[in-house]
Protein: MFS transporter
Amino acid sequence: MPSATTDSSAPPHHAPPAARPRGPRANPWLTLIAVAFGLFMVGLDGSVVSIANPEIGRDLGASTSDLQWVTNSYLLALAAALILGGKLGDRFGRRTFYLIGVAGFTAASVAIGLAGSIEGVIAFRALQGFFGALLMPNTLGMLRAVFPPRKFGMAVGIWAMVSSVSTALGPIVGGLLVQHVNWESVFYINAPIGVIALVFSMSVLPQSKNDAAANERFDIVGVVLLALGLLAVVFGVVKGETWGWTSGGTLGAMAAGVVVLLVFGLHENRVAAPLLPMRLFRSRALTIGTVITALNFFVLLGVIFFVMLYLQNVRGFTPVEAGVRTLPLSLASVVASPLGAALTDRFGPRLTMPLGMALQAVACFVMLAWSPDSSYVTMWPPFIALGLGVGMVMSSSSDAIVGNAPVRDGGVAGGLQATALQIGGALGTSVLVSLISSRVGSTLTGELTTAGVPAPAAAGLNEAGDAVAMGVAPVSGEMPAQLRTAVVEGSHQAFMNGVHTSVLVAGVLCVVGAVVAVVGVRRGSTGPSAA
Structure:
């Protein structure tokens, strides 16, 4: 499998004949199917909740801050424990901790629906995130352990396809359930998926772990430092939108997190059995793959967030109608993930990572032509380009990370990949929405007066910038029809100004990512085939 560097100390990829599993447990493709169930459940849950939040707020009397914590408690617990989940799997058994993760995630999902209070929802969402952190990294760790090198790339491509599609389908599934059932069903749907995953996985998954680590001292200090550092960084990121990116709280939280993570890195270099071996980053492809993974989900989740605002609040579509209109993105990612894996297998990530980033850049730059009343003809091409780019990068960067790690560190590498994904997604949503808010604040009054709103009224409506930044025009039934039309026109144009700023920044970052991948990943090097 082409990539940058290898770890010559990695053990043979295949177990000795006596240790090889027999029957269904000997079939790596059944392992892939089994982990796909758990991966789909976590991916779907990551994006479906945004659709349910308004109903949760109305039903439980939750404030906007409470609803933010419905998302943030999950994200913080997930990000803080992903690498720990991978390390536990590597040491004590990836199958074991995958099954614990599936069972816990399923039980926590049902508990959320039964909670009956916003405090209960927030608490069980955090628990759900923790069990998701046990589940996710061990999916890739098991694939790394059971697939031979020549087939590992395609397995990762299918893994990436499931991850991308489940994330993109979230708004559609969530819209259907909230509209036709209730918000609790968004979480209850995990129960049948989780039960199927458990029964099937227990039947087909082989156990895999790093036997050499059984007698090593567990790095408790590393666990604490990494969790505290990631918690502080992610907390600063998710609060940056509301506190302001230059506020003391935001900068202080992120700076403290970075300092703790630097201490964690120094600690890891001094212990015999580190939680996250720093030697992994000697692989240039692994390091760049981690950065590109974060950038990939920065763009995907950030763009999906404001696209849904645009389709629902500006264009007036229902959640289901909006979700259906983003289907080209999902379908394109279905095609791109295995295609990206096949191209990576043949040409290496030096081709597929920059190509995927370039496709995402094209999608972002095409969105610069969107207006408040754009036809769907101008929407689906960038959706397809974005889906192709995300799917291609997902498969190639995941392969670059996990494929360049020794088999014994497969779970940790999976945790590293998933951590980069979560932090990138959190940054994308927070940063791009903040850019929209900032641009709306600077252009709203001008756009309102240009649309025909009298200057005094336009100045008064400037206080409604937060609503306009979500695509909502600040109109009321008492307004004359002509004034209402002008307010809607000016507000929506101010929102589109913010969207254009966001896609321009995202597009430029994609171009930078493509250049970094081209320059940083070596040509013609080998990866897991040598492991």
Q: What stands out?
A: The chain has three domains: 25-207, 219-272, 292-526. The two ends are 10 Å apart (CA to CA). The domain at 292-526 is CATH 1.20.1250.20 (Growth Hormone; Chain: A;).
